[in-house]
């Protein structure tokens, strides 16, 4: 196969940090090339260099054998490179159509023939089986749909090489299959895809070749057919990771959180709860399984005080909740690993250390007691301890959170939420975007919290994860509970059917 892209000896430094150090990567026409590496290994940085968002500190890029300089994303697009970022970059105030047209190189002057564009875009969408609603504002469409818009936008601009940075992290299984069909179609047209994912099963399924990065350096490039997920995982983390087995608890302690006939937007199939009753006991992990968008978000928001149920009763540690406020729940020692870490979990332009103490600034050890005069040294020392304990990889705890790799941002949330010895932990997709080692760390931490008597409500679209750590499994479908199963030898097929509403 013909070579399309070669990146040679790419180094990218941020201050004293080498995000990329002497990386080599070559991508052929018509291949799916996966970048694999732990959180912070340098995958997104390398792709941002390719897309002209960063200039490399050293190294060269060749396209079709010719040395090129990619000074900006506009230039990358001109050269046939498209990129769907780890965190989407759509303009929220605009419609889908406007977002796709925006910045297109043919858009010169004031006059844009929207109808002609619409027709072209619809044809393109049809060709790739991309289902999009062009006139909806971007804010009103689901994550999976936003991603299809990003892909369509890249294809509309004529991408020959499409970079997909963790495209499946927030997709349901069905959406992922849809994405893979699109990738296959691109391949059949001799286009190339650089794919990034932490999910081994996907990597093995879709890739032709895999390049493994570790700590900013290339480890090797392998033909996917000649390797397996175990070998890849070991290459990635540089050591063997033994398979995990967690013991299942059968007799939980007293209830920490109890929902009795709780409803919210009852008639909404995807964004409501219909007569939900469930209990989370001390020292047990209750896993909610189900396809995303069957009421899980609303459940998480009710048990963290963000939403007030319309019907039913919520008891927390034996007392009925009268007022639902996030702060009230925090004071009751309820911790929350939120679904969307960018919107709810972290304040990106605040430092790692400030994010770590975000909920504890009124504690005497960190301030004068009112959160007014902060004890800077105490906070700094505490943050250093957390950095070590939770293996948060960053240059310094004074660094802004938004510059951390996705997985390391999640570790900051985890450190903050788990440190206070919570009575209840509500963990929503807690390992989304995390590498294998970090995922193991999160699971171990939940098991640890359980051992300390914490009740854990795990909400996850990753069925394997629910199976692995839950003591009890509850299946949700269209806002209702379809079944409750013991975590010890659960009937997997039956659960699968329940997840589909059968
Ligand atoms: N703008 C920046 N300023 C400072 N450091 C940065 C910046 N961007 C990235 N880094 C650092 O470079 C390293 C590589 O980050 P990168 O985002 O490329 O990792 P990644 O492999 O994409 O990880 P993940 O799987 O978590 O997304 C990290 O240590 C990160 O903190
Ligand atoms: Mg990344």
Throw out a few tags for this protein.
502 residues; alpha/beta; Rossmann fold; 17 helices; 20 strands; globular; binds adenosine-5'-triphosphate
**Percent range for helical residues?**
25-40%
Strand order within the widest beta sheet: 6-7-8-3-9-10
Provide the low-confidence segments as ranges. Answer: none
Query: What amount of the residues lies in strands?
Result: 15-25%
CATH architecture of the largest domain: 3-Layer(aba) Sandwich
How many domains is the backbone divided into?
3
Q: Strand pairing plus helix content: what structural class?
A: alpha/beta
Can you tell me about this structure?
With about 500 residues, this protein is an alpha/beta fold. It folds into 3 domains: about 5-235, P-loop containing nucleotide triphosphate hydrolases (Rossmann fold); about 245-335 and about 420-500, P-loop containing nucleotide triphosphate hydrolases (Rossmann fold); about 345-420, no CATH class. It is built from 17 helices and 20 strands. It has helices at about 45-50, 75-80, 95-100, 115-125, 145-155, 175-190, 200-205, 230-235, 295-300, 325-330, 340-345, 350-355, 375-390, 405-420, 435-450, 465-470, 490-500; strands spanning about 5-15, 15-30, 30-35, 60-65, 65-70, 80-85, 160-165, 190-195, 210-215, 215-225, 255-265, 275-280, 285-290, 310-315, 320, 335, 425-430, 455-460, 470-475, 480-485. It has a 6-stranded mixed β-sheet with strand order 6-7-8-3-9-10, sandwiched between helices. β9 (about 210-215) and β10 (about 215-225) form a beta hairpin. α14 (about 405-420) runs parallel beside α15. The longest helix has 16 residues, at about 175-190. About 45% of the residues are buried. The mean pLDDT is about 90. It binds adenosine-5'-triphosphate and magnesium ion (MG). Adenosine-5'-triphosphate binds near residues 14, 17, 45, 86 and 394.
């Amino acid at each position: 196969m013909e070579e399309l892209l070669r990146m040679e000896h790419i180094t990218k430094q941020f201050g004293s940090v080498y995000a990329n150090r002497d990386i080599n990567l070559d991508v052929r026409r018509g291949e799916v090339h996966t970048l694999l590496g732990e959180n912070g290994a340098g995958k997104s940085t390398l792709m941002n260099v390719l897309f002209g968002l960063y200039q490399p500190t050293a190294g060269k890029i060749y396209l079709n054998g010719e040395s090129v300089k990619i000074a900006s994303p506009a230039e990358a697009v001109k050269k046939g490179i498209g990129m769907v970022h780890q965190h989407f970059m759509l303009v929220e105030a605009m419609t889908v159509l406007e977002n796709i047209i925006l910045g297109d190189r043919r858009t010169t002057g004031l006059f844009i023939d929207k109808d002609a564009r619409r027709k072209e875009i619809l044809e393109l969408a049809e060709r790739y089986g991309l289902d999009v609603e062009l006139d909806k504002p971007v804010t009103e469409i689901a994550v999976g749909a936003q991603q299809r818009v990003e892909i369509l936008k890249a294809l509309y601009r004529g991408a020959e090489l499409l970079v997909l940075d963790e495209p499946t992290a927030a997709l349901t299984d069905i959406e992922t299959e849809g994405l893979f069909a699109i990738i296959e179609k691109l391949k059949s047209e001799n286009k190339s895809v650089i794919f990034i994912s932490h999910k081994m099963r996907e990597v093995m399924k879709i890739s032709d070749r895999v390049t493994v990065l570790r700590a900013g350096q290339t480890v090797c490039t392998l033909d996917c057919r000649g390797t397996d997920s175990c070998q890849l995982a070991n290459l990635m983390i540089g050591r063997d990771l033994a398979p995990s087995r967690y013991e299942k608890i059968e007799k939980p302690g007293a209830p920490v959180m109890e929902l009795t006939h709780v409803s919210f937007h009852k008639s909404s199939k995807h964004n409501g709860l219909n007569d939900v009753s469930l209990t989370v006991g001390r020292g047990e992990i209750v896993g909610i399984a189900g396809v995303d968008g069957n009421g899980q978000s609303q459940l998480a928001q009710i048990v963290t005080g963000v939403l007030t149920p319309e019907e039913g009763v919520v008891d927390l540690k034996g007392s009925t909740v009268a007022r639902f406020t996030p702060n009230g729940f925090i004071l009751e020692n309820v911790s929350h690993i939120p679904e969307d870490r960018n919107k709810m979990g972290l304040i990106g332009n605040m430092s790692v250390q400030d994010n770590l103490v975000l909920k504890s600034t009124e504690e005497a050890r960190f301030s004068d007691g009112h959160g007014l005069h902060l004890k800077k040294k105490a906070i700094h020392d505490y943050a250093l301890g957390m950095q070590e304990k939770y293996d948060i990889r960053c240059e310094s705890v004074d660094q802004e959170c938004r510059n951390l790799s996705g997985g390391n941002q999640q570790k900051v949330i985890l450190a903050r939420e788990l440190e206070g010895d919570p009575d209840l932990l509500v963990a929503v997709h807690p390992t989304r975007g995390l590498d294998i080692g970090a995922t193991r760390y999160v699971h171990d931490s939940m098991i640890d919290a359980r051992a300390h008597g914490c009740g854990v409500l795990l909400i996850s679209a990753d069925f394997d994860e629910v199976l692995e750590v839950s003591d009890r499994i509850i299946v949700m479908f269209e806002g209702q509970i379809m079944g409750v199963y013991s975590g010890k030898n659960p009937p997997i097929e039956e659960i699968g059917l329940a997840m589909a509403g059968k």
